[in-house]
Amino acid sequence: MTVDPRAALDRLLAALEGHHHAVSTRRRDDDPAVDDAYDVLADAFEVYDDALVKVYGETLPFYLADDDTDDEDDDTEDLDEDDLDEDDLDGADLDVDLDDEDDLTPLEEDEDPDADAR
Predict the structure, then answer these.
(1) What CA–CA distance (Å, rounded) separates 93 from 89?
(2) Residues with Cβ < 8 Å from 21, sequence gap 6 or more?
(3) Compositional bias (Acidic residues) at which positions (predicted)?
(4) Other residues' Cβ atoms within 10 Å of the Cβ of residue 10
(5) Cβ neighbours of residue 93 under 8 Å, at least 6 residues apart?
(6) 11, 14, 47, 51, 117 from 55: Cα distances, Å
(7) Nearest Cα to 13, choosing from 47, 55, 50, 56?
(8) Domain ranges of the chain
(9) Mind listing the pLDDT tens digit of every residue in the chain (118 residues)?
(10) FRET partner for 105 with CA separation of 20 to 30 A, picked from 3, 36, 64, 91?
(11) Can you give the chain as a three-state secondary structure string?
(12) What angle, 0 to 180 degrees and rounded to 10, lies between the N-to-C axes of helices 5-24 and 32-56?
């Protein structure tokens, strides 16, 4: 069943109004009315977007982000510096291919290979 785009737009506008009202009259940060209005708005947006595609072959210039994507981005914020490899810290590839003779610099006879470590 195809939804009439005009009816879907009216529903989307009403959902925007409802969301605005819920946000502007919230009593605390975790007000369930805001969460409910968010869900209604997201659903109305998807219905309108689908109706535009089916009837007119057009899409909106924006989309709803997946909640899973946001969760993956947030996971990196919880990492400690100790959890990261040296490669991750500076983005450089620290591995040296020892089989590649171009990477090796010969020592002079009087150079001590462990001098830097002291």
Answers:
(1) 10
(2) 37
(3) 65-118
(4) 13
(5) 87
(6) 17, 21, 12, 6, 71
(7) 47
(8) 1-62
(9) 678 999 999 999 999 999 999 999 999 999 999 999 999 999 999 999 999 999 999 999 988 888 665 555 555 555 555 555 555 555 555 555 555 555 556 666 666 656 655 5
(10) 91
(11) CCCCHHHHHHHHHHHHHHHHHHHHCCCCCCCHHHHHHHHHHHHHHHHHHHHHHHHHCCCCCCCCCCHHHHHHHHHHHHCCHHHCCHHHHHCCCCCCCCCCHHHCCCCCCCCCCCHHHC
(12) 160
Query: What Å distances lie between residue 12 and 24, 26, 67, 76, 82, CA to CA?
Result: 18, 21, 20, 34, 47
The tokens describing 40, both together, are: 């209604």
Location of structure tokens 């009837």: 55
Residue 46 burial (CB < 10 Å; 0-12/13-18/19+)? Answer: middle
Quote the longest CA-to-CA distance of the chain: 86
The pTM for the full model equals 0.56
